[in-house]
Write a structure and sequence with these properties.
Blueprint: H1 3-9, H2 23-34, E1 45-51, H3 52-63, H4 66-71, H5 73-80, E2 84-91, H6 92-98, H7 120-138, E3 142-147, H8 152-159, E4 165-174, H9 193-196
Antiparallel strand pairs: 1-2, 2-4, 3-4
Helix pairs in contact: 1-7, 2-7, 3-8
Length: 202
Amino acid sequence: MELHEALRRRAMCRRFTGDPVDATVLDRILSGALSCPTAGNTQGTSWVVLEGDVQTATYWDATTDDEWRARNPDWFRGLARAPVVMLAYASAAAYVARYAEPDKADSELGTGREAWPIPYWYGDAAFGVMAVLLQAVDAGLGACVLGNFRGEEELAEALGVPGQWRLFCSVVLGRPEGRARRSRSLDRPELAITDRVHRGGW
């Protein structure tokens, strides 16, 4: 598939079948995510991959509760059937340490997190997530990004994630069921290109 076609077809899928994702396909998607740029070649992003009902239940148990599921039953059932949950993690400490090394010392970013006006670790994590989304389209899969809103500490404890790593977001991955619920966000009017692209200045 051409890149421009994958970009055009990319959309969040919120309803999945329980069909497993082929291991070769999943490995290729992970390889693509890990080949994305990281500032200073820090490689300060990592993935935790949960496959199958038992492993993915760890994610849902930590990030939802009975009350939340009762308020969002269709949304939850459609997402929870996905056979793969990919957790994108980033380490601020890795970037601070990398930028304290001699070849990056002039940046003065190696003194601590507070020195960073824009944290590179979140940008690098986002690069990897976008690579996963585009590769999912290419593989005929559906994917949905879920923000880190609740249960991060419980999830990290259950999965043995070291303390320096923060959950950037999760990507739910699998075969689209075909009856995806339309997001209300799509009802928002689309801005003109000239509202978002400013040539030569704002």
